[in-house]
Every structure is written in C-alpha cells, then in structure tokens.
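Hi Y.,

Following your request, here is the sequence exactly as I used it, all 368 residues.
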Amino acid sequence: MPDTALDTVVVGAGQAGLALGHHLRRAGHRFVIVDAAPRIGQSWRDRWDSLTLFTPRRYDSLPGMPFPGDPAGYPGKDEVADYLEGYARRFDLPVLLGSPVTSVRQDPAGGFAVETAGASLEARQVVVAAGGFTGPAVPELATRLDAGVRQLHSSAYRNPGSVADGDVVVVGAGNTGVQIAAELAESGRRVTLAVSSLGKRLPHRLLGRDLFWWFDRLGTMDVAAGTRLGRRLAAENTIIGTDLTALFERAGRVGRVVDARGRELLLAGGGHLAADVVVWATGFRPHYPWLHVPVLDAAGAPVHDGGVTAVTGLEFLGLPWQRNRGSALLGWVGRDAATTAGRLARQLRAAPPARSPAGTAGPVVGAA
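Below is the corresponding structure, written out as tokens. Let me know if you'd prefer a different format.
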C-alpha cells in the first residue's frame, strides 16, 4: 500500500488531468491521478462510433508529445483514447484507475481527505479535472412522455443501430444534435430535428486553411472568458463541418420543444409532434455529488475564477471557457494546465506541509 500523504490529488485522467500530471511530474510533486474508469480514454471510447474531432491532429497534442498521424487529418474518438493512454505511459504518470471518488472534504490539518472506492488519500491540494460534461441533462418534461416512447440522451447514442425503430426526434441545436440527426437521416431513418435556432455554420476549411488555423492566428482561442468578446463567443452556437442543407433535404425541422404529453412533443407556438424515439442532445449539467467543499453554487456548478476557488488548494481544470475558448479542448488545455501547475507549486512553497510524508517525489501507483 503506497504512502497516502500527497502534495496533490488530481480527480480525472482525461486530457486535463494528464496534462497537469505531466507538469506536476516535471516539478517533482508527490501526486496521484484518480479516475473511475477501468481504462484511460474510456470516456472517449464510449462516445458515438463515427465521432471525429473538429481539430486536425496538429492542434491535438498535449504537452511534450505530438499527436501521431497526418497533421492535417481529423482523428477519431478511439484514436484520441489511444493517444491519451500512450501519453500516460510515456510520462509514467501515477494513475489509479477503477477508483471513483466518493468524497472530498477539507481536513483539520489544512489539506483534504479524498476517499475513493479503494483508497483513502490525504493531500495538501486537490484539482478537479473531471471535465465540464459530468452529468447528462434531460429536461423534466421528458417524464411526461408515454412509456412507449423510447428515450436516450446523446451520451448513450452509438450509431443508428442503437436507436429503436420508428420516427426519431432529435432535440438539441448544438453540434452533437445535428451530427446525430445527419447520421440517422443518412442511414434512411425518419428524423426530425427540434431546435429553437441554429447557429452559424462554418466549414472545416476556409480559404484553403483549416478553421482552427484561422482561430489560432486571429487569437480567438486565447480570448479571455470574462471579456465582452469572450462572452459573445461563449454564447454562440457555431455548427462546424455539418452540411445543414444536405441534412434538411433528408430530415425535418420543427421549433423548440416546450412540453410533452403522451406520445407527443409540444412545440413553441402551439404545434405538436408525435415521436416513437427521442434523442435528447440537450447537453450536460455539473455533477459533483462527492465534492463536500463549499465551492459549488446552488445548481451544483463550480464557483471559480479561471479555475481558482475561494478554498485555497482546491482548483478546477478543463472546464469549458475556464480561462478562454481553448480551456476544454485537447490541444489547448495544456496551457491552462501549465498555469495551474505553477500556481500549485507556489502554494506548496508558501505553506510548509503540516505532515512529513516519507519518501521522495515520484509515482504513487503506476499508470495502468
């Protein structure tokens, strides 16, 4: 059993947690990364089969390790999962898999007590790097649909074969909703997309350059979250890559769903639409039931400034628009991770440990 008195516990072995681990390893911290999944990259493997990133491989690297393959090509979700797994091996990151966190609390010594399904850990710092997509959001009105209407959240969608037979209504105006609707329509399914409005559509390439080349060159990936431009960009619902004209040649479109009754979805303006299957592409909500530290608002969302909370030593990493547009994206989260790592190091230097853990900096448990 390893010594459990640590500098830092990182919750989440996704791209944010691994990027932070790289910086903590270089700084000689005693740390461990804990994750509920049985395998690194599992959350990517569990997404729908045809998912590919919007960003080409040249923009998908974490610190210290280029993303392999054609730099101009777009990796699939399993390729991303394999890359993350290889990244943890490459840097020998101390990842404790199959270890869902059950509790994080402040302790009397000024640090934190972290309970997982298999271990009790003590740390001076905790970084929650579980991402911004922790709980599927399904509207309450879904409970008023007849039991005969099959329902699934987009996180449970895999391919057209994973959707029951019949007329399908996809509810949601984001990239996920239009991509799922397009794939279902292309497979010959009868599909209707229910949205209040659709954002502007941008192609993968513009004037011979990848879209994210333009974003990077124009500085929009680094626009700060709290600025006027940052707030405007965060509120936009840009559809990237999906051919909406082709989609609506195959699929129907109705307005916003406001309620449900029996087998029907009730629409804004008084219309209604019968459905055999509803795919809720309605996003995610914050879900941290194990976090017993006063850093969440009434809705359970993190209260932070660039990931920094009011509780010294507890931070978030990898949230959408945490600091800027790139904060939650594979190729940009490393920048936030470097900032977080530097701040954690300064905190450790400023506050000597209340304990004197035995041993030297190094892995607590090997990456699986």
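The chain has a mean pLDDT of 90.

Thanks again,
Q.
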